[in-house]
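Still learning. Show one?

>
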Amino acid sequence: MASQSRPRVAAAVRGPLERRDLPGLYTRVCALLDANRGCEIDCDVGEVATDAIAIDALARLQLGARRHGCQVRLKNAAPELVELVAFMGLADVLPA
């Protein structure tokens, strides 16, 4: 459950994503996290394809967020993406 006392920050992940995009995406989000430690990130994933690369990217972002005391929440996720997250056992890690 989301904490009401955490500041909220908006971010967006746009597609299509390729594996080579992941390090840069992680670096950009970590810069946002450095400036907003302890925040909750509303991450708009409405343009992200439902594939393993997207899951890899989102899991990496959540890992970076946790290292900064933050939490990523998926916003505008396609039902198929939510289902793939659940199928991969990551529903608790990547809440929608």
In short: Helices lie at 22-35, 52-67, 79-87. The chain has one domain: 8-87. The longest strand covers residues 8-12. Residues 81 and 87 are 10 Å apart (CA to CA).
